[in-house]
Amino acid sequence: MEAQSLPVNYLPIIFQMLVALGFVVTTMFVTHKIGPKRVTKDKLTPFESGIEVIGNARTPISIKYFLVAILFVLFDVEVIFMYPWAVNFRELGKSGMIEMFIFMGTLLLGFFYVIKKGALDWD
Length: 123
Known about the structure:
The chain has helices at residues 11-34, 41-44, 63-80, 82-87, 89-117. By secondary structure, the chain is mainly α. The protein is flat, with a radius of gyration of 28 Å.
């Protein structure tokens, strides 16, 4: 027997969504109405990590910062590919070892290319 998808079957899901949405709206409304409202100069100033804000937040950031972050993620993801190889090291045998040497060589070539281009220099 094949199950049919009728609109009445979705009523419990719709009811649960309405209850959840009603709970969120009610909670936000009540806390806004009964919560304390003490606006002071200290509460209105931006604050992050205990450091006073100096200058404009919209100053341009060096592209080197983003380049290093992307390179870190790139090499980190490539290292993740080594875990399945390490788990199945004995089953893969000599061919698995050769393939990992090729993978590591390619990774090393990419790393040398990044160093040669000066992508990791902060000057």
